[in-house]
User: What shape does this take?
Amino acid sequence: MNETVFFPKQSATALTQTKRSLTDDVKSGKAVLTLKTETQEDISRSNTELLGALKYWFSYTSYLIENNKSNVIDYPKTTHYQLGTTERPIPLSHAKEHIIGEFNDLGKDKDTQWESFRQETSAMIYNARKYWLQTFSGNYILDEPIRVVWVIDNETATPKEFQALVTRQANGEYKAGEKQPKLGFILYAFKPLFKGHFNGWQKEGAIQGGFIKHPKCLYAMAKYFIAHYLPEGDFRNFNAVEIVQLFYYLSLHCNFKGEKMKVDMIDMLKHVCPSALNIDDTIRYNRIKGVLSAITLLSKITQVYENNCDFMFKGIVLDNFDVSFAFKQIYSDTWEKHLVMESPEYKNFKEQMLTDGNALTYAVKHHLKTNKNTLELVYKPTKDTETDRIIEAVQQVLEDKKKGKKARRQRDSNPITTPVKGYERTNEIIAFKKAHPNMSNRAIAEIFKCNEITIRRALNKKQ
Assistant: This one.
């Protein structure tokens, strides 16, 4: 199966949303909430910052949809796409492989990523949250971006039942030869966030078009690289969530023209790390080292996985004044002598500065103060750019229309399939009701093309 995720820009926009950025957008009129309030108390970290609660699930959902388009179920009058059924659920082993991959080990005396994924999933189910999500009309509503219904041996199960069996498997409690249950799940994805997979990545209504290309397991990868490649101390005060958000933010603002991009640090920090800003929107410079560590890590990730990204980060643009300022801070007693004479110390300093966290922090601080908080990054576009892929997608749609056939994407493997004929199946009705608890039986009957009595009988049978 493809090792690359084509992530919708609308999803990336949602994942770089913070309490601070949405509050500013509401005040300026850029965002309209469906719940009108006199204060901004309804906008909080718990209902705006999606990636913090769904670190592993987002890119996996996009990966799953992209590689199984013809098997995604789009019921009318519903807000979420459905992937998987009780008859053919998505195997839990598939999620582990494509969410965590080879990045499970975080080092000695630390939990594995699989354990972190289990904890996140439990929290998502037991404390399901609704977030401010943008609809096709452009307004924001409170809804769940992703829902999961657990399946054990082709029947829906409670989170408690499912977790008990997962724990048994993890602890090796099954005896040799003992039959183990088949564990899987049904996934529901908020349509406006993932619509790009089905419309050739074109803009729809107020929804941003296009996609971001990155390697699968991006969050797990970032967490792994922090544990194994970044030094201890202040250089690590940027976490994996913020690194992924930074990647998405920079991807959204890169126009692929030339090899340099200017970044408004104030706006970037509002969307990525609001805690690095003071109340008056000035930068807290004691957090700059963490921002630079994130850029350094992204540079390493994009270089290692160049073929799976739209571009590769190469470094930060700094001038001689920035370097001289940093040099002065490090060599405060003898800096003038070294600077005038172009001493070996100064030349070596210029070469090694990008790997010295303190020196780089001083240089960037000076650069931001003298360039109106704008930082310039150097990048190298990869061959498979977004424009090329969009053109290819549009050409394919036009070609399919000429042939009179629906567009289909070739897949290497297929963990899910569409449900078998006969939508009155009891297990399918029960699973659908679990995912849509507020939907009436009459509405469900219309979707499953049966009468309301069939729906009631199915739900009563489970009880």
